[in-house]
# Entry
Amino acid sequence: MSARLEIADLRVAYGRAEAVAVDRLVVEPGTLSGIIGANGAGKSTLINAVANWSRAEPRVAGSVRLDGEELTGLSAEARVARGVQLVPEGRGVFLGLSVEENLTAVASAGSGRRAWSVADVYALFPRLRERRANLAGSLSGGERQMLAVGRALRMAPKLLLLDEPSIGLAPLLVSTLLSTIRDLVDDGLTVLLVEQNVHAAAEVTDVLHLIERGRLVAGGPVAVMRDDPRIVEAYLGANHG
Amino acid sequence: MNVAQQLVNGIVIGHAYALVAVGWTLLLGAARLVNFGHGQMYMIGAFVAWWVMAATGLPYWLAVVAAVLLGAALGAVMQRLFLRLTLSQDLVNLMIVTLGFGQALEGAAGLAFGPKPQTLASPFQEMSVHLGPVWFTVQDAILVGATILVFALLYLALHRSWLGAAVRMVAEDPRLTALGGFKVSRIYMGIFAFEGAAVAFAAALVAPRTPILTSMGFDQVVMTFVVVVLGGIGSVLGSYVAGLGIGLFTALFGALVSPAYTTAAVFALLIAAMVLRPGQLAASGSFAR
# Structure
């Protein structure tokens, strides 16, 4: 059986500057993988390239496969139709739309996949039900992230790409949100998560990849990676253990 | 001076301004795009309706339908032609190419329809209603009613429908819209088609009030620009209020001061508004209100 996501020889460049050069990255179905690394290491560039989405205009080359199907050349919306769903960093919802509109105004999920209903999303995040009529612009940062994840689930992703969901959130909210995502993975969802908060990522992921200057320099099961000296020194430091 | 009659005239002219501007309002509000070929599309709408009636003998209302369909097609073609500029929101170049597109339309219309003024003969222009001291034509009443209906439907569609939500999404963040599984260029095409259909509809309703000329497009684009800017760049309700206000202003100014200076006076009003309340006029992303 082929992997849920398989990246080969991926190169992403902005102008002349190469931002990401990943020879191989595999995500197995039903797992939660994390990409960790410093600011500017290329984490976001990497998962944006999987979705073929960016606010800039990068040049992307290489192969991205979903369940063995080559995605190269497909637009972002065509990848959404096939089940690749990105929640981008920062703004993942429409501030001028109500909470409920954010959940309803999505394209229907591709055939053969059962999308989450709006009621399912409210059951997962009861807070959103309370604020269903409010504009998304009036939500707190944590509520916006819940809404962004809920909106993504409405399109029945096979692979959910989350770019820094914890950014700007209070520590308690970070662990609540990440444990919700862990529960979704335990129910069968496949997630690739970009996270600066290495402690939080190590708590919930199955596999961790370390990216430095656009290249994957280490990767493996989280239990092993926790003790990797490069991660301990650079990211976990004295707080570890 | 019959003040009541001037008010009626102002209301009718104001609704005409608003209806002519509604397409551009959506275009600017949702897509952040401009179309300086708007006036010539108005002219084409009027001439197509005229031609359908003159050449085929079809009734007026079918000519209106034909003009609207052709207007929608013209809008969609424009979006295809200028696809790259629309997606990159290259406003300066889009202004120039749409001006050029308008000139091409005007030239083509001159060749096809000739230089003579024509009359779009709506049967409703011949029927008048007298109410006490005021009178208006049935065409005027239809124009006012249709304008209110178009604005109300547009407002409801934007706020109560899935498609309207998609338009508001594109207005707020086109890139993010793609992640909702939407083909953004398709939504832009729909907005351009609406712009073309709306201005052709406006032309088919407004044009019977005066003789039509293939060179009349530029005046329309000027007035539309004033309505859209005064309405608060891209605001749907703002454009309605601005159109109505300018209509009343021109009618009263024409009657009280001089009809020769109304256009200049409207621009003075625009400049005053831009100086006094610039914040109100800025494109703000709140167009759907």
